[in-house]
Amino acid sequence: MKVIFLDIDGVLNTEVFITAIHELFKGKNPHEKQMDEYGIRFDPLALRFLKRIIEKTGAKIVISSSWRLSGLKRMQEMWQARNLCGEVIDITPCLMSKSKLPFDERFERGTEIKMWLDENPVESYVIIDDDNDMLPEQQDNFVMTNQFYGITLQDAEKAIKILNGN
To answer: What is the dihedral of CA 69, 123, 45, 47, to 10 degrees?
Structure first.
């Protein structure tokens, strides 16, 4: 199985998209059109690039974003309700709630991903995130996005190469 560890804010939620929505709906409530019961909708361009990754690799999604704190079922419901591409199969564990675990906070997200990988062997994986709190050994599997633009075509192509072993 191929897995995408997916952050949301700065990856699918982009500052460029949010700014454009505010400009488009000036004088009105922009969030009225761009929000649903799950929160703000995602940037359609970033979603297109995520879809490209999934179509070219067959990868499944594990949510590593802080959005996972609402639970796996809620993430899966949102994916279905918004008709998003791919399948959310799990969420990473949350170290914030396991304060007895010793870890370096600089690598919190990376440690959570390592914990998930230790329990779930995979063929290949990629981490897509706008924050670089990954472990040194995860750097070859890491695609860092720009929070303003989210996933770009270049990011998608890099993720596809990582997942397909090119």
So the answer is: -50
Are 110 and 140 contacting, i.e. CB atoms less than 8 angstroms apart? Answer: no
Residues 6+ apart with CB under 8 A from 19: none
What gap in Å lies between CA 52 and CA 36, rounded to an integer?
Answer: 25
Residue pair 30/151 in contact by the 8 Å Cβ criterion:
no
Length of the chain: 166
Q: Does domain 2-164 have CATH number 3.40.50.1000?
A: yes
pLDDT tens, 2-33? 999 999 999 999 999 988 887 777 756 655 66
Instruction: Name the CA radius of gyration of the chain, rounded.
Output: 16
pLDDT, tens digit, 9 for 90 and up, residues 37-60: 998 889 999 999 999 999 999 999
